[in-house]
Every structure is written in structure tokens, then in C-alpha cells.
Amino acid sequence: MSLLQRSTLDPTRTPGPGGGAVPARRRRPDPWVLWLPALLVVLLASMSWTVTLGAADLSVREVWGVIGERLGLGGVLGDSGLTVLREGIVWELRLPRVLTAAAVGGGLALSGAVMQALTRNPLADPFLLGLSSGASTGAVLVLLLGLSVVLPVAAFAGALAALAATLLLARSLGEITPSRTVLAGLAVSSFAGAVTSMLVFWHADGDSFREVLNWMLGSLAGADWAAVAIAWGALLLVGLPVLLQGRVLDAFAFGDSAAAGLGVDVGRTRWLLLGGTALLTGAMVSVSGAIGFVGLVLPNAVRLVVGSRHRRLLPLSVLTGAIFMVWVDTVARTLFEPREVPVGIITVLVGAPVFVLVLLRHRGRA
Amino acid sequence: MSVLSVRGLSRVEGRAVLVHDACFEVPTGGVVALVGPNGAGKSSLLRLVAGTASSDRLPAGSPTDGGRDGVRPAVTLDGVELLGMRRRERARVVATVEQEARAEFHLTVRQVVALGRIPHESPWAVAGADDAGVVDAAMSRTGVTDLADRSLATLSGGEQQRVQLARALAQQPRLLLLDEPTNHLDVRAQLDTLGLLREVAATGITVVAALHDLNLAAAHCDHVVVLAGGRVRAVGAVDEVLVPKLIEETYGVVADVVAHPRTGRPLIAFSSANLD
Fold this sequence. Notes:
The complex is a heterodimer of chains A (about 375) and B (about 280). The longest helix of chain A has about 35 residues, at about 85-120. Chain A is an all-alpha fold and about 375 residues long. The two termini of chain A are about 40 Å apart. Chain A has one domain: ABC transporter involved in vitamin B12 uptake, BtuC (Orthogonal Bundle). Chain A has helices spanning about 20-25, 30-50, 60-70, 85-120, 130-145, 150-170, 180-205, 205-215, 225-245, 245-250, 255-260, 265-290, 295-305, 310-335, 345-360. Chain B has about 280 residues and is an alpha/beta fold. The termini of chain B are far apart.
């Protein structure tokens, strides 16, 4: 009856027969290291390609030519030889839009992955838990009432309030389970949505009505360089530190008390990281409106391929989220040219079936 | 100095005192059973000892045993106080196996065991070769090496228990706490688990296990801490503590203690208090 005797208790020595094959297996290069640069290349290629797509036909060489000229690199990246109008399309319309799409997709996917780990809920997503709706409400309040608050700050405050409401509501229902959290999120996001609609009907007319609709459905149509600055600023300032917390998120695999047993300051980590996701979501919603399900779809898909270790899951979620968003937004603006579909409609069309799939995979445990 | 000493630990939730000024001392390097009826505060006490829950101040005016009011909460292992340590540092000394450990996401056995290296890893660096060696050794010690690439969710209760034990051993602790490690296990798996704990203790790690089954405690443990109503009722060697009188007082059942026909260890037969 000795499971121990065949091995040594000195951890530095090679373990018994069962461990013989182990070092060989570890020497095999870990393929995930190659995923990162590969996906980065795919992202860059996708961005340069999608900029060329649209009513005005452009080539990749022309696009890079414009970028080179604007960055003062002369003809290093190729000569665009474009008219002022076509150059304007690249620099003022399509490039900021594609860049914003990438940051928004990456940021929302990261928020989703972090929220899923911290709430131990595969269904957690900034949209489903009401953060996006809360952020929209905050943003629309500022837009329509002309409050003198910066838009992203209002969106952040809205996201944070919605997150707090959802978690408090879920907790007051008893033990926090995935389905309770989603139900609480549904209540909060419906309420925030209704408040937003109310504000719109009271204050909006004509053009601004349409603009507010874009906000609620999620659209990147208005993306300019200011949007690029907000989205990328948030992704780098908030997203990057969050990316480094992968191992800490791993510690939450078996719950709060297990994480505490592994030396994690659970309370502090939870609030810092959830605050970070609220900030990230708020910034993204302030430039794109409430785009749904990106935070649900991408992390769950990536998890199927590389597993649940967050040092891999987080960076790969960011990259795939960015690539996904760049393409979905391109579809949104080109599919029914010259009319444009709010991109949020397409992400929900893709996301809702994935939500059902995740639900089915975890049935009985929600 | 080779003792595990627990002093002044209390846990209050709302108006209920779950653990009342727990104080005890046991020799280190053995298997200690923490026994007591349901709701005695065993899980709470383990969390207090692990430092994952903080000791509360008792409500004003509540009587403390022997006038130890105001004893500073302390858990001292071989002369080193643990509660004052930083969390990560403490997680390298104390490891806990909880009662029900369930993950929502797919994890392989190796990945679960590797979680035990978190307190040893620098937050920025990638896990080193040392860590892989410790993980392999921990899996081998608990006999889960062959399951290394299996998904945790596909394993039986006993196998999952051994994986959690391997994870705890990968923390390279000197104090191992287990909350009902034999819960929901069949007899064979229960005996295997206790056998493993004995072997762990033989390497110098102090093992404290909350146990439901007094006979398991009597057969496999060196010392017993009896908890009832949040208070420590008795502490000592198995045959001194698990006597009929104490069992009757603590559990409200009639107990007869005989010698096990094979091992000679105490064997307890229970009967209802109103039988005669």
C-alpha cells in the first residue's frame, strides 16, 4: 500500500518510473510561443488589407504609402501617388476605424477573459453582465445632457456602477453561480438600456437619434483619431498590466479560498482586476458603443485550443479579439454598401449561438 | 520546540461564534485528526490556521476559557509564527486541500498540480525547470503521474483528491491542512488517502486533517483535537482522547472502545444513547 515508496521525496531528483518520459516531453517546443507572433502578423496583415476594402478601391501599397507620408518617412514605405480625396479616405476614415476596431476587439476580449476567470463563470462578458449597457448609459447621459464630463470617464463610471450592481444582485440571490450572475446582468443591462432609451426619446431628434442608436447597438462608424487614442491608450495603460496577471488568475481556478491558500491577496486582486476591466470596457464603449459578445466568444474559443492557463489565454484572446473585430467591422461597413450595419448587430448574430453552445457545454453546472 | 501551537483563534460570523478562542499544541511531524460533530467549526478552524481567514475579536462580554482574554492570535510551527508572514511566504509553508475543489474550466492534472508552484514563482518569470521537477515529484508521490495529461473533470473523486494533494505537496509545505479528505470516497480510497497522509507525515510534514470518521482517526492518526461548538474540548494522543466518556459527551452517543483485531488500534463501536 505504498504509493510513495517508488519515488524519492527529494523534489530535485528524478522521480520514479512514471516520471521517466517526462523530461523528453518537456523538451518539445511549446507551440503556443509561435501563436503569438503568428497572430500578430495575421492582425497586421488583416489591418492593412481591410483598409483597402470599401467603396473607394485602394491597394495595400497605396495605403502604406499614405502612412509613410503622414509619418514623415517620405517614400520609404512606397509612394502613394493618391489624390487628396483618396488620401483622406485612408488617413481620416478607414485607418482610424480599423485601428479602433482592433483595440476595441482586443480590449473587450481581454475584459471577458479576466471576468470569466475572476467570477469562475464561462458566461461572463462585459455585455452580458451589464457593463456595456451601463457604459452606454453613462456616455449617452453626457452626450445628451451636455454634462461637462469627459466621455470615457462617464462610460467608465457607468460600467463600474453596472458591474457593482450585477455582482451585488447576484450575491443577494445566494451563492454566486454563473446563471445567477447572468440573470443579474440581464436585469442590470435591461434597466440601463431602458434608461438610455428614455434619454434618447426625450432629448434626441433627427441625426442625434441615429447617432444614439449606433451607441446602443455598437458601431465604429464615427471612429476618428481621438477614438484611436482613447482605445489604444486604454488597451496599453490598463490592458498591458492586466495581461501580466495571468498566473494570479490561474490561482482562482478553484475559487477564492484556494487562491488565498496559494498566497494571493484575493480581495485586492479581485477589485483591482474587475476595476481594470470596467475601465477597459468603459473606454471601448465610449468609442464604439455597446458591442456585444466579443468578450464571450473569443476567450471561450481560444480556451478550447490552448486550455485555461491565463498566461496564454490572455494575450491570445487580445490578438484574436482584435483580428475578429477588424474583420467583423469590415463586413459591417461593406456588406450592404453604401448602407452600413452597426457592427454590434453582427457580433450578437455570431455571439448568441456561441453563448448557447457554452451554455450546453456547461449544462447542469450553471 | 517541535510543536504546532495554535493560540487565540476565533471566528465570528454575524452573531454566531464559529470558533471560540481555539488553543492547542500538538507535536509536529505526525498526522493530527481534527474531529467533532457537524458544525463544530472544523473547516473554520482550518482556515484560521491556514491564515486564509483572519481571526475575529470575540463579542464583548463572551466568556473565554481560563481567562485567556486578549491572547494574540498565533499559529506557531516549530517556533516560527505563521500568521504574521506575508501571504506568499506563508503559502510556501502551509498548504490546504479543501473539501470540494471544482474548476469551471478545463485543466489537466499537470496544470492543476503546477498551481502549487505559484507561491514559489516570481510574478513575472516563466516557471523554471525546478518547478517542473517538483511538480513531477509531487505527482509521483501521490500516484497520479499516469493521469498527468488527463482532464481533471474526467477523474473519480479519489483521483481528484490525490491530484489536490499533489498540488498541495508541490507547494513544498511544512504544514499540510486537509478538510474532510475522505468525504464521498469509498472505503478503499479512504484507506489509501490516510495511508498517503501517513507517508507524507513520515517525511517531516505536519498533517492536520479534519475527519468525520472517528475510526479512521483512531486507526491512522497520532494525535486528536476534538472540537465541539466551536471550542477545543480535548487534545492528545489517540488512545488518551478517544475514550467512551468524551465521545458520549461530544457526540451524544454511547461508545465502546475495543482493540482492533488486526492492528490493536482503538476501534469504536457506537450505539444510540436511548438504546437501553
